[in-house]
Write a structure and sequence with these properties.
Helices cover 43% and strands 19% of the residues. With 427 residues, the protein is α/β, with parallel strands linked by helices. It folds into two domains: 239 residues, Aldehyde Dehydrogenase, Chain A, domain 1 (3-Layer(aba) Sandwich), CATH 3.40.605; 144 residues, Aldehyde Dehydrogenase, Chain A, domain 2, CATH 3.40.309. Helix 11 links the parallel strand 7 and strand 8. It is globular, with a radius of gyration of 24 Å.
Length: 427
Amino acid sequence: MSLAETTAPSVSTIMAELGRNARVAARALAIARPDQKRLALLTAAGALNAHRKSILAANANDMATARAKGISAAFLDRLELNDSRIDGIIEAVKTIAELPDPVGTTIAEWDRPNGLHIERVRTPLGVIGVIFESRPNVSADASALCIKSGNAVILRGGSDSFHSSAAIVACMLDGLHAASMPVDCVQLVPTTDRAAVGEMLKGLDGNIDVIVPRGGKTLVARVQDEARVPVFAHLEGLVHVYIDKSADLEKAVAVTLNAKMRRTGVCGAAETLLVHKDVVATHLKPVIEALIAKGCEIRGDATVMSLIPAATLATEQDWRTEYEAAIISVKIVDSLEAAIAHIEKYSSHHTEAIIAEDAAAVEKFFNEIDSAILLHNASTQFADGGEFGFGGEIGIATGKMHARGPVGVEQLTTFKYRVRGTGQTRA
């Protein structure tokens, strides 16, 4: 063992220091002026553009390593950066920069009979720990959203995206430096050792206030099982599209095709298609043929098998699978009620869509399905913070506490009460 190895700090020591630095930075960021935060983000966006070549080179390094490991096509798609995707990252940071600053805004206020004036006011959560896999854009989205909402962030990306994330974070630090804000507001865990995740889940001596996991079922399950701090859970996207008996055929084809095939590896990609029995004769083949033409594999129930020669028989496991690939399971249902029952049984409560012209059917679907995002006559791939006007998202929370759906700047705040009196005392 070399001297360097014997004197190198342990993972726990490294992580504890990150936690202490983040807490100090969070206190400064919480009182930063809105113009400072805006300057930091706009400067970071400029740096991302200026350093585009180095970001792409870092990503090429990560992609080469991932391919050598035999990583799946869906994983590679999430990992890959190109000019278009960097443009998207830059635009997201700029959009977040121009959002209204949530910190200090009054959510509600009222007067009591005794003369007390009470205000509920937005305040940052503090320090956010983000644990993510493969998607290097998360490092930019999370950094920008946390800066805007007044929170320090500790980023722990997957080893496969380490170089890409480091190149992006360097640009975010340029922005913080230009705005005279602590660079420890954004910290990337400097090791790929998995022990770092365990340290974050313990809370870093009370210095992490919330953990946000972005990754596969295994990562999210570990976080939920081991975390000693609150978690914004981002579960798998087992997403459904239901074609109602009142559906317009053209919309059914276009929406389903986009929901499944625009990008098959994103969490908003449709995985199961439900079709009302009354439109099987008119809608099923056009929709399925459009999917097959784009290279989608069909796994269907007995009725689908009898009508679509290319289909294979769906198993019970298919209804429970997030494929993240060009595969979709298809089931014929007898009624809207049957579609709702199927979704409630198998859904991960992420995103569901109904294609229908019957307003009553849409309202029933919206009222009775308990998922974070519900869409009518629109692709499930709109399940994205950027598409909601949030600029970006740290994740899509599928739990029911505090934040649900895309987690943007407002969802990264809590509130405190300010009570103003004139000398009142309580009897």
